[in-house]
């Protein structure tokens, strides 16, 4: 194992967008500031999507503008099309993300179009981003299973990853959106994708519905992947998969990595404080095992 892993914090976007409780712009800005102060220097802060479709991400332009004063950090935003790209650029975005699904069923349920049509929608985004000098990250959903189509073949993921790479994405994030994967399947999928896109250009975005995310991440690290998407407190979920939980919790990832001797640069106390505050705002405790254990330990020490 190399001693370097990059963590991409998803809480303010992929986490909060699935929460029923709306969080104010001011609180979202404070959340991002707290995460960066904890040592998480790459944070996805919002999505330039229809507020009717995802009201939790309304005013992402204000959030992005509100965190631009933060030094030594990189902020990402999700854009589905040219309209979203225009709004993101106006707000000062320097890194944007586009997304596609490895499954036709999920693509149609999520964005009402086929996988091929979704790619056509964001092709102009990649063309303009290249001309503007803006980095584009590509997400692939449902890489280890789909609530509509069931099992996903590794080749389908690999082919889509190659398409995103060829279109100009600098990094491909592979998402187990409903958290059904196991280490063997994760390893098989990653090996298939690595035959098309270099391992150092891949990231793992694993949800923890069945409690397999850390094991899957470890398997992926053994395959050479060194970028992990996670969300403070395990925020998030999937509206199309009953019972699906959020992203693997950042606290749990940090605890595992540090225990392996891999420095993350994350201050656990500051991260826990950020998680506890956002948990208070949304009215439910963090699902992170580490956050729960540390909170219990801290209460007992008082």
Q: Which oligomerization state do the chains in this entry correspond to? A: single chain
Number of strands: 8
N-to-C order of helices and strands: EHHEHEHEHHEHEHEHEHHH
Report the β-strand fraction as a percent range: 5-15%
CATH class: Alpha Beta
Fourth-level CATH superfamily:
Aldolase class I
Shape assignment:
globular
Short description:
This protein has one domain (6-301): TIM Barrel. A 6-stranded parallel sheet has the order 2-3-4-5-6-7. It has helices at 11-15, 25-37, 60-67, 82-90, 104-111, 115-132, 154-167, 183-194, 213-222, 250-259, 268-282, 289-301, and strands at residues 6-9, 42-47, 74-78, 95-101, 135-141, 171-176, 202-206, 227-230.
What distinguishing features does this structure have?
302 residues, 45% helix, two-stranded parallel sheet, six-stranded parallel β-sheet, 12 helices, alpha/beta
How are the elements arranged and paired?
Layout: E1 6-9, H1 11-15, H2 25-37, E2 42-47, H3 60-67, E3 74-78, H4 82-90, E4 95-101, H5 104-111, H6 115-132, E5 135-141, H7 154-167, E6 171-176, H8 183-194, E7 202-206, H9 213-222, E8 227-230, H10 250-259, H11 268-282, H12 289-301
Parallel strand pairs: 1-8, 2-3, 3-4, 4-5, 5-6, 6-7
Helix pairs in contact: 2-3, 2-11, 7-8, 8-9
Folded structure, characterized:
This protein is α/β, with parallel strands linked by helices. 45% of the residues lie in helices and 15% in strands. The chain is built from twelve helices and eight strands. The chain has helices at 11-15, 25-37, 60-67, 82-90, 104-111, 115-132, 154-167, 183-194, 213-222, 250-259, 268-282, 289-301; strands at 6-9, 42-47, 74-78, 95-101, 135-141, 171-176, 202-206, 227-230. Strands 2-3-4-5-6-7 form a six-stranded parallel β-sheet. A two-stranded parallel ribbon has the order 1-8. Helix 2 (25-37) runs parallel beside helix 3 (60-67) and helix 8 (183-194) runs parallel beside helix 9 (213-222). The N and C termini lie far apart (38 Å).
